[in-house]
Design a protein that fits this description.
Blueprint (H helix, E strand, L loop, with lengths): L1 H29 L4 H19 L16 H11 L2 H7 L6 H31 L4 H18 L11 H21 L3 H13 L2 H5 L9
Helix pairs in contact: 1-2, 1-5, 1-6, 2-5, 3-7, 3-8, 4-8, 5-6, 5-8, 6-7, 7-8
Length: 212
């Protein structure tokens, strides 16, 4: 178990390296559409880590009925903040294909990311680190994965505004998970964020927010 825990704790840089390499390999060939193979590889590697790291714990345990906490309200409100981006740029969806890809990513991605970043990784680090360091560790690599992987082809993912928002909401999602003893509302909030920031349009540089 100690070896597995060590593997999980050390896995974030490996996941980012694999994602970065995937993006670098595919971007010269298919440009911004490299987001598709990157997403598939990213999900696969996280899925392997989740499968290895969960041990005998059932995946359903992470989404059991959450304990009430005011942080859930904070997390949901923060998750709704990016919806302003969607409402003011929805006209950029000029094909049903883009809509399908956008919704598919927004529904699938939060499950993998939350089970990994706020699930097995946070659980593993909490066994060997203070709570504040555990949250900081998982949030740091979660935030870093965006410019280092998606940022290879997506201009917006290299923005300081994105880094700041992800840092804030990453900490809030971690606290939500710890206080509520569940990832249920964290996943919902994450889905709303991925819908609101029109992820696929951001990946394809169809929508580029003000860059800081």
């Amino acid at each position: 178990m100690d070896r597995i825990r060590t593997f999980i704790i050390l896995s974030p840089p490996l996941i980012i390296l694999i994602g970065f390499t995937t993006a670098k390999l595919f971007t010269p060939v298919i440009q911004e559409w490299a987001w598709i193979p990157l997403a598939l590889v990213y999900w696969l590697v996280m899925g392997i880590c989740i499968g290895v790291g969960k041990g005998d714990k059932r995946l359903a345990n992470w989404i059991r009925k959450p304990l009430p906490t005011k942080l859930t309200i904070v997390g949901m409100l923060l998750g709704m903040f990016p919806l302003t981006v969607l409402f003011t740029n929805i006209h950029l969806f000029d094909s049903i294909g883009l809509v399908i890809l956008w919704l598919a990513f927004a529904i699938i991605n939060p499950w993998f990311e939350e089970y990994y970043w706020r699930g097995i990784l946070l659980d593993s680090t909490l066994k060997v680190m203070p709570k504040w360091l555990s949250i900081g560790y998982s949030t740091f690599f979660f935030v870093a994965s965006h410019p280092l992987m998606w940022g290879v082809f997506s201009i917006a993912n290299r923005s300081s505004h994105v880094v700041i928002f992800l840092s804030i909401i990453g900490v809030v999602w971690s606290l939500m998970s710890l206080r509520s003893k569940s990832l249920r509302w964290v996943i919902v909030s994450h889905c709303i964020v991925d819908i609101g920031i029109i992820t696929v349009l951001v990946f394809l540089n169809i929508y580029i927010p003000p860059i800081g």
